[in-house]
Amino acid sequence: MNKARWIGLALLAAAPLAGMGDYPLHLIILCLLWAFVYTGWAVMGRLGMVSLGHGAFLGVGAYVVVMGWNHFHISPWLGLPLALAATAALAFLIGYPCFRFKIVGHYFALVTLALSEVVRLIIIALRDYTGGSLGVTPKTALAKASWSLSAMQFSSKLVWFYVILMVWLAGLWIWTRVDRSMSRLALEAISQEEDAAASIGMSVTRLKLGVTMVSALMTCVGGVLYAQYQLYVNPESVSGIGISLQMVFGAIAGGMFVRLGPTVGAVFTLLLAEGLRLTIGHDIHGLDATIYGLMLVLFIIFMPKGILGAAIEAYEKRRRAPRVAPA
Amino acid sequence: MQIFDSFLLEAVINGILLGGILALLALGLNLIFGVIDVVWICYAELIMIGMYSVYYAHNVYHWPLALAFLACVLLVAALGALLHVLVIRPVLGAEPINQLLVTGGVLFFLQAVATLAFGVEFKNVGVSLPALQIAGMYISFARLIAFGVALGGMVALYLFLKRTYIGTAIRAISQDRGIMPLMGVSPNRIFVLTSAIGGALAGLAACLLVLQYDIHPAIGLSFGPITFMVCVLGGLGNMVGGFIAAFIFAQFISVGGYFLALEWGYVLAFLFFIGMMFWRPQGILGGK
After folding, report:
1. CATH of the domain at B111
2. Could B261 and A299 be called an inter-chain contact, meaning their C-beta atoms sit closer than 8 Å?
3. Cα end-to-end span (Å), chain A
4. B59-104 confidence digits (pLDDT tens)
5. Which residues of B touch A255 (CB under 8 A)?
6. Residue A281 pLDDT exceeds 70
7. Which residue range(s) make up the domain with B119?
8. Percentages helix, strand, coil for chain A, rounded to the nearest 5?
9. B264 → closest Cβ in A114, A125, A240
10. Does some domain include residue B287?
11. What is d(CA A293, CA B101) in angstroms, rounded to the nearest whole number?
């Protein structure tokens, strides 16, 4: 198993060297980037904290860095810690009272939804600086050179591939760390029965806040990378209800209870969207999104554990089956 | 010193009128949550479909406006019942959050279907109502009608729930979902009926909104989130609370929009909402 994992990783890392076109490479990069973001969401989502507000963190990440670069000439490398600090403050501001006052389930989802709308509306309201709904492009540093380290802009997709591959691996590592920590067990207990967990001395607020911080900061990093890679952001694509729901669906479609689940979800949703776009094309406007929406509904009804979750379950059932004596 | 700035007063009055609409929007959502314990994230998208139905009936097939409105209410009521039977019923036993998310999927689906069927161009039914001029203030007649109808709809729903047998059964289910089947009430039928009523309220809202706004596939996003906030602020499922919360929110949007830009009115309303959640997470009228 372990060997297979390393071989798979090596194949993935070597794939772009085999002379693949720009478009497939672009797709792989986007898959890895969204896989990282969905993994970040699932870190808290699978513990019963279903946030519909992660668009807020993605938006803060993308816009703080781009605004800093465009208006104050702050290098994205300095913008990144600024964005992380802003995200941490925002996550604390929303998380602490929510967990302190036991806002869970529907209420938590709707409060976080409001947060992502606040961020989207603030971005639009500050249109004199952010370009409003039209979006904004980071000032280019690629006029003379093909890359600029200080501006975090690279025209080569290969560079982005390796950067985002590393980030994605780091995301999986964080997932494993959280998974193996005591906090995870404690949080699972809390998500089942919060009062009982508190009664045996678990610090519910602190544990939940910790995981929320990890999740929010990962999403923020995803936002920064998205803006720097695409070199264009608009409020709808990084904040608000649409992208927040997309993250949730991606994680659920793949399976948010297993480590590679969100990654499978990202690959699946992206390939589905691209596949539909390529086969149906833009002539019939909206057909691809119709099928996409329909599949989301079917997924939640018939496969709530997601693709990978269901696959693992089926595999284990088959492996166990021979041991059961036939009736 | 001029305290009663007439423009400010106009903003306040417009806020009250907007509050009527928001209250109507929240009413349907609260009814469904109170009875079935499900939040329809796609509620505003049902309204969007209703608005298109008015447009097509009136402007394309040249039905009289009243008939188009009736068709809209019936159509969205049917959609509401259909939504329950096809989408909500299969997940009633699943994790509560899945019920919320599945309607989120319906949101994407309806938006995409509308894009596919109706295109992305803005559409307008072209019924223009005059603005009333009172003491130097302009009050939109369409908003005044909307306010009146919204209040009328709420009174009608209140009487229905209080005075009829079915209404009593609906209220009973909302109080104890477990015990009512023992009393011979079929929850299933009540759920479908409640969904249809919730849909009809969305249809009614669509008729009122179509007079004021252009129709496009993403219009649901512009008043969907605010409706959820109104419901939560009032206490999910608490109809009176939702009613009060609607007017508070509307004032933030209208007066905030008067002093600053329109988006800032919304930002203030949302920030107020987040703040309130920490002070009274159970809603303004919820018990401790």
Report:
1. 1.10.3470
2. no
3. 33
4. 888 888 889 999 999 999 999 999 999 998 888 877 777 888 888 8
5. none
6. no
7. 6-279
8. 75, 0, 20
9. A125
10. no
11. 12
